[in-house]
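Quick one, tokens below. Sequence please?
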């Protein structure tokens, strides 16, 4: 169940506490999966895990959903309703998209976090929240605070234990390879397609894609490609064009950058005829790096053997 996230000893101590946790990351980066992982790897694992998303609700409905209501508390309240706070029942209440609730709703939530107490709508009996909160958002709460759209006191209350998830495009190549292989394996097991596999070129195209929808997009795309392919070996030609086009565009961009770099180096070393020391200072790179780049592009305005001796 650990998936893409590693849990250290200090984090484990936090996960076992009732201290509220904030998970931040773009859509599809695995916030919900991490929240479940935290719950099932903590002392709350045998208690309920409740997922709620109250974004976009009116203030009245927000309170009803979170705290519950009594019959007759408002028009349409035909019976008593248990809110998410009571449903948690000593377990975990995962509050998704915390950055999308109103300032009035934020105030109610802050009061709950500070006191641990609440009232059902229409009720007079004080109730105690038993359990722990995990919050998630795809938005920058710090930016929302600066805009006046998120309460600063609530932000400070949540920000002490914040976990940020990187989008796929910012992960190392080894991390992307691991994630892609894991999702392919899970998709093959899910649809009983264990004999199918991607050829090296096809895998490379998928690996080079930026995955703006992150793991969610990766999961749905891989599943669809596996299901649509009639062959055991999935070729590059079976990969949807959007993946191939981005790889080609990325390759052209890298090629253009390399060509520009080569022209700059050629102009500095050959056309100007300056030495390696002056050229490296002018370009803002070390002499060793400059020599490596000259070799890479086959530039030899001076004898590189003589140049390398000057570096030694």
């Amino acid at each position: 169940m650990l998936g893409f996230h590693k849990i250290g000893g200090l984090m484990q101590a936090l996960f076992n506490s009732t201290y509220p946790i904030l998970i931040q990351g773009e859509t599809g980066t695995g916030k919900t999966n991490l929240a479940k992982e935290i719950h099932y790897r903590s002392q709350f694992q045998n208690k309920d895990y409740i997922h709620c998303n109250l974004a976009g609700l009116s203030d009245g409905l927000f309170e009803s959903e979170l705290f519950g209501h009594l019959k007759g508390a408002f028009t349409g309240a035909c019976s008593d309703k248990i809110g998410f706070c009571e449903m948690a029942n000593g377990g975990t209440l995962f509050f998704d998209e915390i950055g999308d609730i109103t300032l009035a709703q934020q105030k109610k939530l802050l009061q709950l976090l500070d006191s641990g107490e609440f009232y059902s709508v229409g009720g007079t009996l004080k109730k105690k929240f038993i359990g722990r909160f995990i919050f998630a958002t795809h938005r920058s709460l710090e930016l929302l605070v600066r805009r006046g759209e998120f309460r600063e006191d609530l932000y400070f209350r949540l920000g002490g234990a914040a976990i940020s998830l990187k989008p796929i495009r910012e992960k190392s190549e080894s991390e992307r390879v691991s994630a892609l292989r894991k999702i392919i394996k899970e998709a093959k097991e899910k649809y009983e397609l264990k004999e199918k596999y991607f050829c090296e070129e096809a895998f490379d195209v998928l690996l080079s894609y930026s995955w703006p929808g992150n793991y969610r997009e990766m999961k749905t795309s891989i599943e669809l490609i596996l299901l649509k392919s009639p062959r055991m070996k999935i070729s590059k030609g079976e990969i949807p064009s959007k993946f191939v086009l981005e790889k080609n565009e990325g390759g052209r961009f890298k090629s253009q950058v390399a060509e520009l770099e080569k022209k700059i180096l050629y102009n500095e070393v050959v056309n100007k005829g300056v030495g390696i020391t002056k050229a490296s200072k002018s370009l803002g790179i070390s002499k060793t790096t400059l020599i490596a780049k000259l070799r890479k592009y086959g530039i030899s305005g001076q004898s590189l053997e003589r140049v390398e001796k000057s570096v030694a």
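Residues 26 and 138 are 5 Å apart (CA to CA). Residues 9-164 form a domain with the Rossmann fold fold (CATH 3.40.50.300).
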